[in-house]
Amino acid sequence: MREELKRRTKQIGIETILLLDDLPNKPSAWELAKQITRSSTSVGANYRVVCRAKSDADFINKLKIVEEETDETIYWLEIFEETGLIDSKRIENVKKEAEEILAIVVASLKTMRSKKS
Questions:
Q1: Which DSSP letter does residue 53 get?
Q2: Of 51, 46, 52, which Cα lies nearest the Cα of 71?
Q3: CATH number at 2-116
Q4: Confidence of residue 117 (pLDDT cuts 50, 70, 90)
Q5: Which of 22, 29, 39, 73 is most exposed, with minimal Cβ within 10 Å?
């Protein structure tokens, strides 16, 4: 499961970068592209850090960063969608995958927190 999640979290960054090719050449799109590039690539990078956690507390703290970055990525995808900068159909699969990853991360955090209690 860990290797599969590493692949999926990395793929979110890749798919998001590929979406940016559909953006119009305008200042608002450039700024949004910078934001989503940072958050979406951070999902996979930070998940790799989670896999090297040294304790349960370290694991939880690092996984919370993945949760935040994934949620932020979903936010930026919604902005692209709602402003019409990228067609909704083009965003649909990436957004769905990000939401699934977020659900997995949230469930993992709940499990780890209950183990600590």
A1: -
A2: 46
A3: 1.20.1440.60
A4: low
A5: 22
Phi-psi region of 26 (alpha: psi -120 to 50; beta: other; left: phi over 0): beta
DSSP state of 22: G
Question: Residue 91 is encoded by which pair of tokens?
Answer: 């965003």
CA distance 112 to 8: 21
pLDDT band at 1 (very low <50, low <70, confident <90, very high): confident
Task: Convert the pLDDT of each residue in 36-87 to its tens digit.
Answer: 999 999 999 999 999 999 999 999 999 999 999 999 999 999 999 999 999 9
d(Cα 40, Cα 8) in Å, to the nearest integer? 11
Tell me the two tokens of residue 86. 């990228």
Whole-angstrom distance, CA of residue 20 vs CA of residue 36: 9
Residues contacting residue 9 through CB under 8 Å, at least 6 positions apart:
43, 44, 47, 66, 101
DSSP 8-state code for residue 24: -
Q: CA 70, 73, 76 angle in degrees (round to 5)?
A: 155
